[in-house]
Amino acid sequence: MYTKQIKNYVENLSELRDFVESVSSFLTKATNDELEHSIGDLFPFVLALSKLNPELPPNDKGVQLLNKLYGEDITLVVNKDSKGNTQIGFKCKGQAGKRSSDAFSRFHRTLNRNRKLYNTALISLVSSAEWFVSQLIHEYYEKNRDASDIKDKMLSLGDLFQIGNIEDARKFLIDKKAESILRGDVLDWIGFFKKDLHLSMSYLELVENDLLEICKRRNVLVHNGGVVNSIYLNSLPKGYKSEFSLNEVITISEQYLEQSICCFELAFVLIGMELWKNQEPKSESRGNILTELAFSHIKAGRYKVGEQFAFFILNDRKLNSTFRSIAALNYWQALKWQNRFSEIEKQVQEADFSDKELKFELGRQVLLNNFDKALKLLPQAIKNESISVEAILNWPIFKEFRLDNRVLKIIKKQPEAKPAELNKLKSLPLKNTKVARKKISNRV
Question: Is the pTM of this model over 0.85?
Answer without folding.
Answer: no
